[in-house]
# Entry
Amino acid sequence: MFWLKLLFGTGTGDLGPAKQKTPELERKIRASFDASSSDEEHFPSTIDPRIFHVQLILRHFGDLGQGRVLDNGSGKGRFARVIQERNPEARVTAMDISEAMLSFAPPGLGRVSATMTSLPFATGVFDAAYATESLEHAVEIDKAIAEMCRVVKPGGRIAIIDKNAEHWGRFKTPEWERWFNRKEVERMLGTHCREVSSQLISYWEDVEPDGLFLAWLAVK
Ligand SMILES: C[S@@+](CC[C@H](N)C(=O)[O-])C[C@H]1O[C@@H](n2cnc3c(N)ncnc32)[C@H](O)[C@@H]1O
# Structure
């Protein structure tokens, strides 16, 4: 079975062998999200700030002052909107592969269209960075994590929220999507960051997580 796993991954949506993103696949992913941008039901432009996914990021980052923050794979910037509201002096950048998604981001946010696997930012310029349900689309996961860590300064904070490979199959997913094992992402973050932890989370802090969502928190 071992060689089968090496060739095809474990079949549970986890990372398996490193994947390569061809220009054609990147175009396909961008086109898919451009087309989905009009679907406000599944790709909303706002989020209830009480949702624990938001609260956890706010707490991990603390008072950002005039710091720079990157929303990595921001979509319409629903998280960035709250981070900016709670930290009015901070400079929040929404970054996404889809310009159509970014066009919904509220004014006042920086907007950059690029790919998570090759960020157009200098090393160590952000005080904090996060990726919510976007890493699952990055294909070259180790590259995307390395890039996110590169652009954060030493002592800066990183948060990733994404889906748990143990629940793979719960929804229909596009061919490129991957869900994650807790330890794999911990290991990848751990090669760039000095403190890494992970936890299961639910939408509401007082509701027992059902296992679908994982959060990884790190300090570079
Ligand atoms: C499920 S949406 C999540 C959006 C947002 N983070 C949120 O929680 O509302 C996934 C987003 O990742 C973006 N995305 C996919 N691949 C990307 C890549 N390689 N680089 C940057 N963004 C990417 C998509 O365009 C899409 O907006």
Observations:
- Strands lie at 68-72, 91-96, 110-113, 126-132, 152-163, 195-201, 213-219.
